[in-house]
Design goal:
The complex is a heterodimer. By secondary structure, chain A is an alpha+beta fold. Chain A has 4 helices and 10 strands, in the order E-H-E-E-E-E-H-E-E-E-H-E-E-H. Chain A has a single domain, classed as Aldehyde Oxidoreductase, domain 3 (Alpha-Beta Complex). In chain A, a hairpin with a 2-residue loop joins strand 9 and strand 10. Chain A starts with a strand and ends in a 6-residue tail after the last helix.
Chain lengths: 151, 83
């Protein structure tokens, strides 16, 4: 399931709902992305996330499909927020459920790695020097590439 | 054709969305970017370095050689930074 929203989410409620009623699930894995208070050397007081409505949901849906194709998963959840967020706020939740831990853990990492390079979101940070757009990181591109060949 | 701009490209061009009657000589993404640059001013400045420009046609990432047609939705933006 994919959700793109301005509002915060309750991690406990979301994870409980993901596994509710399905007793085949033996492992639930999750990743939560938070707003940091530093961007490089600069203190960050807030950031604003912009996205491309329509394409965002489409790309996240494709990632969900690809995760199901690669691993035996019972459930996938991706929630990504947009709008203005402050340090400590939740940005993203990726959760995967499977009978065994290996698939749940691997699929969760796969999804956040792909999301970083393929989901059309952009961050702008508020710093003492003014507002600035976050630049993409080569490490994220490398993290995504290693999933190309492995199952 | 509908053109969409995001993040600093939107800020530098000063517009989020515009309708364009596609000049008939433009057949692919590279030609469209050249044509936008040739408008000068904010467009030339925003699109100066194409190594930091990404393009999606009808919500799919594409390369410079990808065809563009009247009726397409073409989005122009910097590399993504979500998650």
């Amino acid at each position: 399931m994919i959700r793109v929203q301005r509002e915060d989410f309750d991690v406990g409620v979301e994870l409980e709902r993901l596994a509710a009623g399905n007793h085949r699930i033996g492992g639930l894995s999750s990743f939560i992305g938070l707003v940091r208070d530093m961007g490089g050397e600069e203190r960050v007081s807030a950031l604003t996330l912009e996205h491309y409505p329509g394409m965002t949901e489409k790309k996240l849906g494709e990632m969900e499909t690809e995760a199901h194709r690669r691993w035996p998963l019972d459930a996938v959840l991706i929630i990504h927020r947009y709008g203005r967020l402050e340090p400590g706020d939740r940005i993203v939740l990726v959760a995967t459920a499977s009978p065994h831990r290996e698939a749940a853990l691997a699929a969760c990492q796969f999804l956040i790695d792909w999301l970083k390079t393929d989901a059309p979101f952009w961050k702008s940070e508020e710093t003492p020097a003014g507002e600035r757009w976050v630049e993409s990181r080569a490490e994220d591109e490398a993290a995504r590439r290693r999933w190309k060949l492995c199952p | 054709m509908k053109l969409l701009y995001f993040a600093w490209l939107r800020a530098r061009i000063g517009c989020a969305e515009e309708e364009l009657d596609l000049p008939p000589e433009i057949r692919e993404v590279a030609g469209l970017l050249d044509w936008l640059q040739s408008r000068g001013g904010r467009y030339a400045e925003a699109l100066r370095d194409l190594s930091v420009v990404r393009v999606a046609v009808n919500q799919n990432y594409v390369g410079l050689e990808h065809p563009v047609r009247e009726g397409d939705e073409v989005a122009i933006f910097p590399p993504v930074t979500g998650g």
